[in-house]
Prior knowledge:
Blueprint: E1 2-7, E2 13-16, H1 18-28, E3 33-38, E4 44-50, H2 55-67, H3 81-90, E5 93-99, E6 102-103, E7 109-115, E8 121-126
Antiparallel strand pairs: 1-8, 2-7, 3-5, 3-8, 4-7, 5-6
Amino acid sequence: MRSISIQTCGRDDFIDITDKVREFVVSQGVKDGVITVFVPHTTAGVTINENADPDVTSDIKMALDKIVPWRAGYSHGEGNSAAHVKASMMGSSVTVIVVSGRLQLGTWQAIYLCEFDGPRTRNVWVQ
């Protein structure tokens, strides 16, 4: 397993970590199989989505803000309930197939760390 440290820049941030995951696959000599990308945080998640148009991640953030507004009378005392809900919606892990040492992602796909309570330093575990 490898832990990758990622510095996020804003309260809500989508960071393309595909190259870092790809580097892990190469460094470990993974030829064929699957890898898991896991985020061990309750206010961050991970997803796979389009990386060709930055408006896609902006649109996802906007849609999540509409569905889960930052202030909505939540009970959680820390004041970051929206971040917890968004992280649960996105999920804490993704699995990617590896064939002949290459991540099997679609033409426009990338792996994103999804920050919902930043900026922070986040860990991403890859195995």
